[in-house]
Amino acid sequence: MRLLLGSGGLITPERREAWKNELNDFLGAISRVTFLPYAGGDYTAYMKRVAELDLAAGRKVEGLHEAKNLLAEIVKAECIFVGGGNSFRLLADLYRLNLLGAIQERVRAGIPYLGISAGTNMACPTMKTTNDMPITYPPSLGALGFIPFQINPHYFTGAVHYESPAGLTKYGGETRDDRLREFHEMNDTVVVGLTEGSILRIEGNRASLRGTSFCRIFRKGQPSEDRSTGSDLSDLL
Amino acid sequence: MRLLLGSGGLITPERREAWKNELNDFLGAISRVTFLPYAGGDYTAYMKRVAELDLAAGRKVEGLHEAKNLLAEIVKAECIFVGGGNSFRLLADLYRLNLLGAIQERVRAGIPYLGISAGTNMACPTMKTTNDMPITYPPSLGALGFIPFQINPHYFTGAVHYESPAGLTKYGGETRDDRLREFHEMNDTVVVGLTEGSILRIEGNRASLRGTSFCRIFRKGQPSEDRSTGSDLSDLL
Questions:
Q1: Is A141 helix (H, G, I), strand (E, B) or coil?
Q2: Structure ipTM
Q3: Contact, B8 vs B213, CB < 8 A?
Q4: How far is A112 from chain B (nearest CA, A)?
């Protein structure tokens, strides 16, 4: 399988450039991507934003939601790109539209899969390491399962501070590390905390970290381990 | 019904004092609280923390998890106190242990219900406005339904910044307001964003905001509305 999984957080030109460079290298001559905007609320606005940010690096972006026959469109797709937004809404739609099996079949047959944020979570065994709000209830948390570990997109270390009239105020709820500790209180799967701007590139039995930052690997009952951009991650496959 | 619903974020002495003062006024002579620690991972550690922070203001705190017959314990409870942690784990346990009906019956019969954070989310129609990670999959997102609106605990306005080696860095994922907007893209229910330190007190058809801060009311398709501590919220019931 060939996967390019971005953490998201493409709010800086540097991170967007890194994503586009990696995408160009990964996709090569493929000039058309089939884009799934289901994590977003307003598909038209979302497609416009993808174009404005040039997230497919000049390639033709065809929204799957505009196709008459979704499954036929997946069958002829050269590349599948699943965008970010709310992961619960995305997975609920993948089930509702009966798309999981068709996407799995195509990606296992070799076409590239691109994900950002929620789209990256979909490549994992489940969506249990999402940061999103459960605004809807998918029939299962089971996702596409292209990789054997979980990814936490938009991962960050340390405490959270929020803007308030009194200036930056420390948040009193769980940190991201608290939440991932809770995940391992109920699950055994390895989690890769993918910092914003980071990209995981997987080809067959090879995986490596690309993009602008590092990742942190969480294994149940063990200290976490950091790896910097350029590192090999094939041992996790 | 009588409900005292705290947002959480009891990391400052000022907020803890406000919670205890309100709890004393609300519970009066009741000297024993039945505490549900199921949102936490380690019940013993959690009970210790509740004692250390004195979250029941000197009252006897009996952990429901230590009872031989959970339902019998609920029947004789003078007050039910549901603590914070992970809302998915909490609700999954309430279903697994078959506790929802018994708690609903007792609270509807008049015993006080106290909630903090995840415990506050349980008083809502659903847990769809939680901030927690879906580390487990409850059979439904439907919760105790004591109030007709949703609460987002630990609510804050504005952008998030996280600690990093480079100092405070702006988070590139969704803000809390983004997440609540997503909620209203798929749901119609009113949401009260309960800032940290805020407490919602409900008695029969009267509701008011207590504690140290304000709340923000989100109605689908309308501008949000702020109310300060001391405000009446009975119109939301």
A1: coil
A2: 0.95
A3: no
A4: 25
β-partners of residue A198 are A211
User: How many domains, chain A?
Assistant: 1
**CA dist list (Å): A149 to A90, A187, A191:** 20, 11, 6
Estimate the share of chain A in helix, then strand, then coil, as percent rounded to the nearest 5.
30, 25, 45
Q: Over the stretch B198-236, which tens digit does the pLDDT of each residue have?
A: 999 999 999 999 999 999 999 999 999 999 999 999 999
Candidates A173, A179, A182; nearest CB to B9: A173
DSSP string over B49-117: HHHHTTTTTT-EEEEGGG-SSHHHHHHH-S-EEE--S-HHHHHHHHHHTT-HHHHHHHHHTT--EEEET
Residue A207 has phi, psi (to 5 degrees) of: -135, 140
Neighboring chain A residues of B128 at a CB cutoff of 8 Å: 133-136
Name residue, tokens 């919602």. Answer: B200
Which domain, by its residues, includes A231? 2-236
We report the CATH number of the domain holding residue B21 as 3.40.50.880
